[in-house]
Amino acid sequence: RPKEPVFVPKGNERKAFVVPAEYLTDKYKPVGTQVASRFGSEASEQIAVNKISIPDLGEILDLTRDENFTLFIPKHQRIAGRLINIFLGVRNVEDLIAVAVYARDRVNPYLFNYCLSVAILHRADTQDLDVPSIIHSFPDKYVDSKVFGQALEDATVVPENDRTPIEIPKDFTASDLEEEHRLAYFREDIGLNLHHWHWHLVYPSNAELSVVNKNRRGELFYYMHQQIMARYNFERLCNKMKRVERLIDWDEPIKEAYFPKLDSLVASRGWPARVENQRIRNLRRETDGLKLDLDDLKRWRDRIFAAINSKSVTDSTGKTIELNENEGIDILGNMVEASILSPNGEFYGNLHNMGHVFLSFIHDPDHRHLESFGVIGDSATAMRDPIFYRWHSYIDDLFQKFKSALPKYTVNQLNYPGVTVEGIEVGVQGGKTNNLQTFWQQSDVDLSRGMDFQPRGAVFVRFTHLQHRSFTYKIDVQSDLAREGTCRIFLAPKFDERNDEWLFTDQKHMFIELDKFKVNLKEGKNTIMRNSSDSSVTIPFERTYRDVDTSRPEGGDALARFNFCGCGWPDNLLIPKGTPEGLPCQLFVMISNIADDKIDQEVTGECNDSYSYCGLKDKLYPDRRSMGYPFDRLPRDGVDTLQQFLTPNMRVQDVTLTFENKTFKPKEVIS
Ligand code: CUO
């Protein structure tokens, strides 16, 4: 039987809750004491749970304990919003524990985990509380289902100290006959999917207004997903494939198939697969509250395009709101996603979320086979499926249409008079200058918390992921005065899929952000040194997986503020794979004018290191420019190439990206 999430206090000591009898479900009332003593015997401490007035869970219980849960289905969003509000509404931590204990044995486990995580993240009195990573609570969403049978066997038969990690093959979802499988290492990367789950956990689209209404969240929805597309297209070029085709014709059969090979331990079912050439059909799924035609989706699309063309939207009171160059993209992001911040949800609908839902029920749109949604229907698993990228390519194109209609950046808006970038060099650990290097690396992760077995003990799985040699940027900058600036670093392939030089209007969509940080320039020559591991885009491996040794002081530190800190591009995917012969790339560095960048706020504290895609906890987004600057708009007239786009405060360095087809063992030192 799957073990549901257990929230373990800091330090991993086991504590048992002593629960008021009326909290037990009818099923457990007769055996309550035996159950309690079974689990209580392992506890070092017993905690009495407050007696509170029992909340009415109402509609929340409509989602039964053995169903799957997703943030993309409006009904699920609504009940999640209700449960989050219950968790947010209680007076103090003791009452939160009480209401959580009461709810836990009644509510769907995925729903429970999500809502309690959101509440812990947003309550003032739970800011130092840890929640185990979802990879530990629900490993079934991240690894090959075959592993669980083996893990159970190991756990039962092999003493803990003699267990060896169970190896997950790198290729388990398809063979090389399937061209799209070349990208499986990216789509199925555990850290990547954890990042995406965390992003949507930090930026829920439906909950109390104070939780949803974060600074520039609609714009960040656009930008984070735009960067996913840029990075995916970059990886495709590395694998000799052309950029993703937008899913623009929704009536055509979808050529991509996907067989996830994941089993839900909670729902005790396999995640449905999608065979090739399936067509989207109208949805009639009463239990999910879904009665929607493809025509509804098309109507929303047409209204959104009309809004983009007129650069204005009509809000729910009939008032016209202009989509201007400052807040326009933020409004559009919320409207397209859609979040509850949409200016008119009734009229502009729920395009992006429902796209996920239509695709996720393609195999059973009227529920005749009693099947649940496919992986594209859950933010924890969606990025595994090739169709995710075709859908998000469509969504991104829509945002780009809006961006292209905005005023072009003038030289004044790009240049920083008096500042010149004179040289860029990338020093690679154990490698050649300006030659970034990637390879395969194995890592181990303990899944035992997400499974129920006796005796307990760690069960590790070993998986293989992309990795790169760490590197250092050395940037020479000349400044005529002592001043501050923002250093912005991006990378793009040098040639397109035909091996031709890019037009700037195409290449600008290929730039992936690598880093962004403030620099203090002195008058004269400056040399800026910066390590790849300090990137404002990524979080380190340990934070992605939360496999830290809590007995060490730095381990305890790393556990702090997990929820928000769990958001961040995985460090192992900072650099795309490259090619064995070396993919020519262009590294772009810009020092922008601080006067137009700066946000005045204190940014010290935890988790201030992966803000590019995730923002800062409880703070303003720490860069006043439009997200994606300077590549987010069409270039000024007469600019056709990257070279022509450059102002003196920008520079481009050719680098190569070389992949070595070699697999390093976990923690093997790379020289
Ligand atoms: Cu993150 Cu479509 O929004 O998955």
The pLDDT mean sits at 89
If you compute it from the alpha carbons, what radius of gyration comes out, rounded to the nearest whole angstrom?
A: 25 Å
How many helices does DSSP assign?
Answer: 22
> How many individual β-strands?
20
What is the approximate shape?
globular
Heteromolecules bound: CU2-O2 cluster
**CATH superfamily of the largest domain, called what?**
Hemocyanin, C-terminal domain
CATH topology (fold) name of the largest domain: Immunoglobulin-like
* CATH architecture group name of the largest domain: Sandwich
Label the structural class.
Answer: alpha+beta
| Percentage of residues assigned to helices | 25-40%
User: What proportion of the residues form beta strands (DSSP E)?
Assistant: 15-25%
Count of all domains: 3
Mind telling me the CATH class of the largest domain? Mainly Beta
Spans of at least 5 consecutive residues with low confidence: 1-12, 547-563
Order of strands, widest sheet: 3-12-11-20-19-14-15
End-to-end Cα distance: 45 Å
Taking the sheet with the most strands, its summary is:
7 strands, mixed
Structure description:
Helix content is 30%, strand content 19%. The protein has 22 helices and 20 strands. Strands 3-12-11-20-19-14-15 form a 7-stranded mixed sheet. The two termini are 45 Å apart. A hairpin with a 4-residue loop joins strand 6 (283-285) and strand 7 (290-292). The model is unreliable at 1-12 and 547-563 (pLDDT under 50). It folds into 3 domains: 15-129, Hemocyanin, N-terminal domain; 215-404, Di-copper center containing domain from catechol oxidase (di-copper center containing domain from catechol oxidase, Orthogonal Bundle); 411-430 and 475-657, Immunoglobulin-like. 46% of the residues are buried. With 671 residues, it is an alpha+beta fold. CU2-O2 cluster binds next to helix 8 and helix 14.
